Amino acid sequence: MATVSLEGVSKTYPNGVRAVSGLDLEIADGEFMVLVGPSGCGKTTALRMVAGLEEISEGTIRVGDRVVNELSPRERDVAMVFQNYALYPHMTVAENIGFALRLAKMPKGEVRSKVEEAAAILGLTEHLDRKPSQLSGGQRQRVAMGRAIVREPAVFLMDEPLSNLDAKLRVQMRTEIARIQRRVNVATIYVTHDQTEAMTMGDRVAVLSAGTLQQCDVPQSLYDRPANLFVAAFIGSPAMNLYEGILSDGADSVRLGEQCLSLPPGLTSLEAWRGSPVVVGVRPENLHDAAGQGEPAPGRALEGDVELVEALGSERLVHFRLEASRLHGVGVAGGAGSERDAADLGRGELGAAAASVGVARVEPTSSIRGGERARFAVDVERLHLFDPSSGQAIGRH
Amino acid sequence: MSGQAIAPAAASEAAPTGGGGGTARRARRSSRRAADRRLGYALVAPAVILLLAITGFPLVYNLWNSFHYVNLSYANVPQHFVGLSNYTRMFTSSSWLASLERTLAFTAVSAVFDTAVALGLALMLHRRFPGRGLLRAAILIPWAVPTVVSAMLWQTMFDPRAGFVDYFLGIVHPSWGSLTWAGASVLRSWVVVFIADAWKNVPFVAIILLAGLQVIPTEVYEAAKIDGATAWQSFRRMTLPLLKPAIMVALVFRTLQAFFVFDVIYIMTGGGPGTSTETLSFLNYQTFITNTDFGYGGAMSIVLIVMALVIAGVYVRVLRPEL
Questions:
Q1: pLDDT tens digit string along A25-49?
Q2: Number of other CB atoms surrounding residue A159 within 10 Å
């Protein structure tokens, strides 16, 4: 039982690649912290530095009040679940789970009772004598979990433990891991590239890009108040619609092509951007079918040409085209597929006016059809504004 | 391939005709399968015929000889059937029994020692260090050198007049400066044979083990590290058990090679001093080529083959994958 803290932690590989730079994170005792970001963002490297599998180039890592920089993995009291589970193929499930305990010279009887206890929690009791090769993917995953929890470590580290499972099992194991973590109540760092996992599992979520921390907050705040363009584009599926607009001289409205959206009063510190380009972000669920709601007030609607409607049963996703510049590459953003585009966004790249597609998430009763021109009511209170050059969020309430 | 492509067409044709179509379809499929089989046999036939000619025939011929008196040195005695007498002669021959003993001892020591050294070498080559690729290629050189050449090299090195081994030993201790090795003392003859043989064969075994090491995922070691294993524990509990299949393959190769050892001994000691480094293969060679006793030699080679098969069989049983 301990907290984990990373202070200014960096990793530079001998070939000069800087995988992590200046990472500051505090994980409270019992907290479930998710590190999320596209591949190559440094999240796994950060985790491996905490585990002691990777040397720390700069900074300090503490477990409890102990600086662990120079300690070997065995001295750090951490347990880790690997992406490929890394089960010992020549050992049975029971031997796999009990290996650390036997290394620690725990008496045999005690090892057995601890292994059985862990197996019971994980539903592995009848598989204890099997070899990993005789188990399904989900069972192997559970053995890897068992190996971690049986040690009662100070810290749990999990490196994309669900990425090798099929979609259905992944959802099931997601809740199971969260449940087990609550039960053992140990500080946990969980690495994933899947934002759904991050949002559903984490007490807090740290978003990483290109080795630097973008934002660390509880999932809802991350979603509601993204600190920059990268987080805005990365979190949420379908991704936030981001367009280039011009802030009015009075800083009370923003122009997207020929259309205008009024901004709610009370947005602070927009002075610097008066009459200048800003990036406007609208989440798909903040666009509604205007036909169903009576005529929206002026400055609270957008019109676009509908290209495609996806009926998902509980909702409809309307893909439309707008006469406004859209941020470069956001067109295909959404879930894990958005990695590269999101990385581009991190640098605040604005593209030419070529594509200006967007997505609205509307009621299943909506009669919007492909090929038509549709009018969307906009929750202007929920607009996000970003500085196009730095990518930072601006004009918050 | 073609069977899969045609099958749906055949099925749709057969569908309207009902049950009769099914029979026709089955017949067609089985005739196609027979044609495939014939083609398969035709394709392997050349290899099978060649193998039969170069190994099958001598084997049968040897077997036949082993039950006969066939000795070219005594051409006036005609070939005749002698039953098992070549075999009984062999099993009661003190020189055959002595060389069996030597061969087994040499095989056991070589297999264990060479595999152990090769394991060390493989572990070293598995580590990351500058010039690793070059070294990996370089250690295969001894294996690529023909045994006759490497045996000659070692013989020269151990030669009391021309070699440098004695020179260096003389620096360590004056009385070691003029030791005679191959063919002089029994122990020293075995030492040089053993060294030359190991030098030649260890690299190959090391490469087999290196290949085995490379398929062990690094994550297993990382997991063991996190579980608290020291370097030694991780070697004992992860590397050795996971390397077992490769070790067994290496042992099979090494055991059989050592069991048939011939050319190193032929070059370096000629079986001497006396007959003290004569192995089964060497004795077999002498019986065949020097004494031209094809009947007795045939019996020896048959027994040699049977013993090799037994060794291989035992290994195969032990080797069966457990994972």
A1: 999 999 999 999 988 889 999 999 9
A2: 23
DSSP string, A163-227: TTS-HHHHHHHHHHHHHHHHHHT-EEEEEES-HHHHHHH-SEEEEEETTEEEEEE-HHHHHHS-S
> How many structural domains compose chain B?
2
Interface contact B228, partner A, CB < 8 A: yes
Domain count, chain A: 2
The amino acid occupying position B296 is Y
Q: Which tokens sit at B134?
A: 């070059």
Contact flag B227-A89 (C-beta cutoff 8 Å): no
Q: Does B10 share its domain with B98?
A: no
Question: Picking from A12-26, A128-142, B67-81, B293-307, which range would have the lowest pLDDT averaged per residue?
Answer: B67-81
Let me know whether A314 and A377 are in one domain: yes
The verdict on whether omega for the bond into residue A219 sits within 30 degrees of 0, i.e. cis, is: no
A106 burial type by CB count under 10 A (0-12 exposed, 13-18 middle, 19+ buried): middle
> Could you report the per-residue pLDDT of A300-353, keeping only the tens digit for each?
999 889 999 999 999 999 999 888 766 654 333 333 333 344 444 444 444 434
Q: What is the extent of the structural domain holding B9?
A: 2-48
* Separation CA A297–CA B115 (nearest Å): 85
Do B230 and A131 count as a contact with CB atoms less than 8 A apart? no
**Residues of B whose CB is below 8 A from A51:** 222, 226
User: Do B28 and B113 reside in the same domain of the chain?
Assistant: no
The values of phi and psi at residue A22, to 5°, are: 55, 50
Interface contact B231, partner A, CB < 8 A = no
Where is average pLDDT lowest: A42-46, A152-156, B14-18, B228-232? B14-18
Mutation target to probe the B interface, by most B beta carbons within 10 A, among A90, A133, A163 is: A90
A113/A255 same-domain check: no
In a shared domain, residues A108 and A242: no
In a domain, residue B232? The reply is: yes
Q: Is A99 near chain B, with CB under 8 Å?
A: yes
Q: Which of residues 165-224 of B touch A (CB under 8 A)?
A: 217, 219-220, 222-224
Question: Which of A197, A224, A251 is the C-terminal boundary of a domain?
Answer: A224
Residues of B in contact with A72 (CB under 8 A): 225
Instruction: Summarize pLDDT for B140-178 with one digit per residue, the tens.
Output: 889 889 989 999 998 888 887 777 887 788 778 777 777
Give kind and range of the element (H or E) at residue A254: strand A253-256
CB contact under 8 A, B322 and A99: no
